[in-house]
Write a structure and sequence with these properties.
Elements lengths: L5 E3 L8 E3 L7 H12 L8 H14 L6 H18 L14 H30 L22 H14 L15 H14 L2 E3 H4 L6 H17 L2 E4 L8 E4 L1 H5 L1
Antiparallel strand pairs: 1-2, 3-5, 4-5
């Protein structure tokens, strides 16, 4: 079973794993914890008892596949086996197989003490010099302060305003005088040749607005004088103009 917080090293070349636990940071840390719990002398470790407890603990924590923990377990078992080997009588050059392990434990213990000391100092400094927020003073200009501009700044501002305005559109209006009298002459001429006519007979298709208005005012004026009658039998039908019979008889 793999521990829940197993993670491989970043380097693909390495086949080992790094195990991070909240209780222990490695096999030496676990072994040192067992020694402290059992309150045994680190220079005279009961290797058989510590090895059994080490195997039981890595099994409980699910570290059966962690290479570094298994390597330490194998080392403890090898030391245990070496401790059980009989010594030859009179052997004076016997070397304690626990010596290398004790040396590593002492080095690790010393390193842990240094780390703990640095962490305590760092925590003290954080409480001694807390971080503070220093607000920057805002640049507030009084609202009623007089406006101060140089001549160049004022001209530049006017130039920017003029650039944003649109070019004014100039519409040229050509005055056209209405020729109502000329239009009345034209209508009388047409009605002299025939009794009636239509609006389209008096106004050409390309007639300008002043010409149309002149003919309209001329017809209204002549109708007012009783010279003709104007009729439109249905909406949008052609306007018919006829000479007034009464006026003609008179």
């Amino acid at each position: 079973m793999i521990a829940p917080n197993f993670r491989p090293l970043d380097s693909e070349a390495s086949a080992s794993f790094v195990v991070e636990l909240s209780q222990f940071t490695g096999p030496l840390d676990l072994l040192l914890s067992l020694i402290r719990d059992e309150q045994v002398d680190i220079y005279d470790i009961p290797i058989a008892r510590i090895a059994e407890q080490f195997l039981a603990r890595i099994s409980t924590l699910g570290l059966d596949e962690a290479a570094d923990y298994l390597e330490m377990a194998a080392r403890l078992l090898r030391i245990k086996a070496q401790m059980l080997l009989p010594r030859a009588d009179g052997e004076e050059t016997w070397e304690d197989p626990r010596a290398e392990l004790v040396r590593r434990l002492l080095e690790y213990q010393q390193m842990r003490e240094v780390v703990d000391l640095l962490e305590r100092r760092g925590e003290e400094r954080r409480h001694q010099f807390p971080r503070r927020f220093i607000a920057t003073a805002a640049d507030i200009t009084p609202i009623n302060a007089p406006l101060s501009l140089s001549l160049g700044e004022l001209l530049a501002a006017v130039d920017r305003v003029l650039r944003t305005t649109k070019e004014p559109k100039i519409h040229e209006v050509v005055p056209r005088a209405l020729d109502v009298a000329g239009a009345m002459t034209t209508v009388r001429t047409v009605l002299a040749m025939r009794r009636g006519c239509r609006w389209s007979d008096l106004v050409a298709r390309d007639a300008e607005p002043w010409q149309i208005l002149s003919v309209l005012l001329a017809l209204l004026e002549m109708a007012k004088l009783g010279e003709l009658r104007i009729a439109q039998h249905r909406p949008f039908a052609s306007v018919e103009i006829q000479r007034d019979a009464v006026s003609e008889a008179a």
